[in-house]
Write a structure and sequence with these properties.
A 6-stranded mixed β-sheet has the order 9-8-10-11-13-12, with helices on one face. The chain is of the alpha+beta class and about 475 residues long. About 35% of the residues are buried. The chain is built from 17 helices and 15 strands. Helix 6 runs parallel beside helix 11 and helix 16 packs across helix 17. GO terms for molecular function: sequence-specific DNA binding. It holds the Pfam family HATPase_c_4.
Length: about 475
């Protein structure tokens, strides 16, 4: 289950009314939070048409009016079903129909001139964000015109600088996206996304891959991936699977350990997350460490400091370190911007028959480690002195739900099967998964999945909300 930050504002309304957009604006200006509405459900917990319609229309309405991406969730609060609008923080103060709002102390207030000055002043006093700083050595001509036209939707891939009107339109779109300044100079975010060799201007804007075999220390051999961020993601994943994990490469998980290969989509998502959320001021490349039994991706940059691994594993909004860069990647259709990446990685590994990836949050770094066989987690935990992982990694670090399930099983003097834990992992990610879908993903029978449902429910780990047809599983 997702951990919620009690310091974030929560507004409650019985229904979506005209003033709700003002409340969303006020919550965004207050640093993000939630708007909770009553859900329209029948006595069996089946969602009615009105609520289904709101779940589809509210995000698009908020995006059109405020430029924000809100998540919609059905939640159970105090014994009743509610519709939750998860509002991200506004990167800078925003207005609705020209009026600025701020939601504080359960009230949504209109900001007068003095209050508005106070809201705007901190942003004016702080240093310019790194991704919006200009790269004065570069200009539009230095960018990859193919990438520029792909992003801006320009009509031609070449010779666009011969048409002044087209150039002006391109520069305006890049300025609005924070990829170029008002004087025609690319920003750091613009260089990362649209330049062929961003490391020329931004130190460490690369990905390093190293093969360490069965030990730590210096890599036995390594590669450094350069290019635009999009190219870095694709090239990194290609090298991992076509060189390091190929049948002729140094790591052969099928032959060596008899377990399935790593899911390519999960590794792609992990590399993409690292590239998008890295702290590029650090000057440190993203590091991909390949061992005989695991693959670890480590980058400088982490989610908000109030977040724990539990919060990261649960339902959460996207809180990017580089909002302009992430917004541009979302516009290109490369990421979805909903904060679903961690859940997707977990699900891909479960469906591939592998242990879930392990996530670790340090002071200024994030690491994800993919295990390529069932015993590698325990071996890593027992060794405890591997500098490449910087900390012992135990199975209990995967999710609080697993630790709670094992404790409950011990109290009842029974054991959880491997299928029980996999089923628990899958419904912890998505409680609306059905027994047939889980059975197909795990390669087991539906009756096996239903036995796991019963065992986990009897242990008080999960319960059913709503009907068998339209409800969902909730991890307690």
């Amino acid at each position: 289950m997702a951990a919620t930050d009690s310091s974030l504002p929560i507004a409650r309304r019985s229904a979506w009314r005209d003033d709700c957009m003002e409340v969303v604006c006020g919550i965004a200006n207050a640093g993000g939070g939630r708007l909770v509405l009553d859900a329209d459900v029948d006595g069996r917990g089946v969602v009615k048409r009105k609520t289904n319609r709101l779940m589809k229309t509210i995000p698009s309405a908020v995006a059109a009016a405020l430029g924000l991406t809100c998540a919609m969730e059905l939640v159970l609060e105090e014994g009743r079903m509610c519709l939750e609008v998860v509002v991200p923080p506004a990167p800078e103060p925003i207005s609705y129909h020209g009026t600025f709002y701020l939601y504080q102390n359960s009230f949504n207030t209109v900001l007068d001139n003095e209050a508005l000055d106070r809201l705007l002043q901190p942003a004016a006093e702080t240093d310019m964000k790194w991704e919006t700083r200009p790269v004065i050595q570069a200009s539009l001509d230095d960018l990859n015109m193919g990438l520029v036209t792909r992003y801006t939707g320009a009509l031609r891939d070449t010779d666009i600088t011969t048409d002044l009107d087209e150039v002006a339109a391109i520069e305006e779109k890049l300025r609005r996206a924070g990829l170029m300044t008002g004087v025609g100079t690319p920003t750091n975010a613009g260089i990362l996304l649209l330049h062929d060799q961003p490391q020329r201007y931004i130190a460490g804007a690369t990905v390093r891959i190293g093969f360490f075999g069965g030990r730590a220390g210096s890599p036995i051999f390594e590669d450094e991936v350069t290019g635009s961020l999009i190219e870095q993601v694709h090239r990194t994943v290609e090298l991992i699977f076509d060189k390091y994990l190929a049948d002729t490469g140094p790591v052969q998980p099928r032959g060596t350990h008899g377990s399935p290969p790593l899911p390519r989509d999960a590794v792609h998502e992990a590399v993409l997350n690292a590239v998008a959320h890295k702290n590029y001021e650090s000057g440190t490349p993203i590091q991909v460490s390949v061992f005989a039994d695991r693959l670890c991706i480590d980058n400088v940059g982490r989610p908000p400091r109030t977040w724990t691994v539990t919060a990261l594993l649960g339902r959460h909004t996207s809180r990017p370190n580089n909002p302009n860069l992430v917004s541009a990647l979302r516009s290109l259709g490369i990421i979805d911007g909903w904060g679903n990446g961690v859940g997707a990685m977990r699900m891909e590994c479960i469906e591939a028959g592998l242990p879930e990836p392990i996530f670790e949050l340090r002071d200024d770094e994030t690491m994800v480690c993919f295990q390529m066989d069932e015993d590698s987690v325990m071996r890593t935990s027992l060794s405890g002195n591997d500098p490449a992982t910087h900390a012992s990694l135990t199975r209990s670090a995967l999710s609080d739900a697993h630790a709670m399930a094992r404790e409950a099983a011990l109290q009842h003097d029974i054991g959880l099967t491997a299928n029980d834990e996999k089923v628990l992992s899958m419904i912890d990610i998505d409680g609306r998964l059905t027994a047939p879908r889980i059975a197909k993903s795990l390669g087991v029978s539906e009756s096996t999945v239903r036995r796991s449902f019963r065992r986990l429910r009897d242990l008080g780990i999960i319960d059913r909300v709503g009907s068998d047809k339209a409800g969902f599983w909730r991890v307690l």
